[in-house]
Give the backbone structure.
Amino acid sequence: MRSLTLESASFWYPATEAPALREVSLEVAQGEVVALVGALGAGASTLLLVAADLAPRVTGGRLTGSVARGDRSGIVLPTPWTQASGMAFTVWDEVAFGPANLGWPTHEIARQVDRALEQLELVPLASRDPATLSGGELQRVIIASILAMDPGLVLFDEPAAELDAEAARALWRLIRLQAKEGKAVLLATSALDALPDVADRVVWLEDGAVRAIGTPELLADVAACDAGLGTSVASVWWASGLPGPYPLTVAHALQRWR
Amino acid sequence: MTGGRLHPFTLLAIAGALPALAWILPAPAGGAWTATVALVLTLTPGASPGLTSTGSSPGWRPGLVVLRTAVLTAAPFWLFLLLLHDVPTTIAIGLRITTMVASFVWLVAALQPARLVEAMVAAGWSASVAYLLAATLSAVPVLKARARRIVEAQRCRGLSPGGGIAARLRALRALALPLVLSALHEVDERALALETRGLVPGIRRTPLAPPPDPAVEQAARWALLLACLFALFRRFV
Amino acid sequence: MIPHPPLRLDGVSFAYGTVPALAGLSFSIAPGERAALLGRNGAGKSTVVRLVAGLERPDDGTVWVGDWDTRDCAPERLARRVGSVFQHADQQLFAPTVREDVRFGPRALGVGEQEVKRRSDDALEDLDLTPHAAHHPYDLPPALRKLAALAGALALEPALLVLDEPTIGLDRALCARVTSALLERSAAGVALLVITHDLTFAAETLQRGLVLDRGSLACDGPLAGLLGDATRLEPLGLVPPAVAALSAALDLPGRPVRAADAANVLARVARGRPAP
């Protein structure tokens, strides 16, 4: 079942000549994690906004081509502090803000909030004032808030940016769990080394257009390494001048080496 | 304290009635009475973390901070009036302005935006409208926190808060401009971000913890309104 | 023993009200040394930055910037010796152009106008921002605004640079710019203290690892050795970055942690191996 289908979607921000997205065609199915990679400005954030029905509806601008969504979407922006309601006294209230806005009954809200807090390991922080949280803690609270709204299509824009190593690992596990529970996940990230374990498919965006779509193996291609988008291991192999195909992860490298 | 105990609509009613009465009732007695009430109220803001930033410490300290803010905000007006008017007029108008300032400062400190949203939604208002009003009120602590960060960053770049008038004006520019620019820039982002939290028109928000509205308070609000109308009637008839 | 190192913490303890943040922290950084301040979220790293910048005073112990005790100095005075860049530094930008904003710092220090221009042009050049120097800061994407804020600190030409998460939001290309700018400054004798959770960036840029755990120093030593040692990193909430993990797994001689070094060693070892 397809959660998101884009066909030849092009998007221009208001008063901008150059399109931010050019003829992008992409499908994301339920239970799948698709990662968007590319240089800054390649269009990953814009693509997520289009998928979330925020562009052009809220941002303005012009969209051509077609976008079809099978599910309600939820998006975690790269600036999580802007998504905070600013009016919750506790983390619990903050996470409940979204579900309450959706008009759900209180027992359902409580269930979703408690589940989200557990998934993001926020239970010890549940009665803290969100204004006193660190950047990483707030990012996790916002992720919990979006997941508590139970979207079928979950969109993440650089969700691990402010997280330390342990929290980042927990996040990748959580993302795989979302897919296992049947959600469709589309995520933009520059944490390329994590993708072989997290993503089912990788979409390489360049200047707003899709340059390549494939399994995470594509991050070990010569083309990706040339463009600075190879995993660290693949990039080291590529820089050393050793012949391809390059190993994707440390485990692959160890196999090759023996 | 008042912020925690009273219904948000009651807080709004009081904050509206006091200035109204200050202007309607004959000066200076009327103004003196309402200004006193307003200033006493500033000592009882309650648990709002907004204006006081002293955390959750109980007792009079948060109240004293709010009182000080009210007094400091009203002081320039008194100075200005003294330059323009004679003493009796200054006192008459000054007391009225003090009432307005103190009532507003108390309201911002006592009114918890989350409770206001809950109260408005329970009364049938749309969540988006309620949120807009509440967000305006809660903008103050957010901007204060950001202003503090900007002051720190600029001081670490060598900005000295002292010096002559010209230096202070330049310093003000380095502090005010980034605050305004970053806040304005963020308005767009915030509007986008709030859409992501489900604030869509047409859906009835579930009240999570609607503040209780005892009959006594509802009666008191009507009584305040009647008192203002009565005073108005008495004044002009 | 350097008479007055650019930074020395001597038994520093600090608490936010009743919440302890740092306990008996002691270390010093020499000119040209590049230190990473690592640790979990909440371990106390940002507190160290605030103490060094003079925004807080230690409850116990002393923070020495050169021969100045931070207790006796306002942050604007410490700006002569310390360039600090906090998180969300892009919110401090306000001038009509990036160039003017970068000039703000040296001007505030009271340096002559010629010198102001030289320092800011050099800082912009080091970060490859010269093509954007005439733009309004808010016309730039957030990543470039972050670099502009960093340029502002470089333009102060301080003896010590203290940076709090300078690479959040930057892609690899921009991270590389930051790395090269910092390496250049360090070669000129500037001491660096960088908080980062990006261990790949730390491996490329920094040489010494200071790891905080619940307010005290759990580790203080060469970064290269630390990054390749998963057993030491794990209890501290850290994970070896990919290149270090690769070196350890393949047992590369010298256990390089920087990508270029690993590539060279890999090539050398591969050439020396018998064909499979």
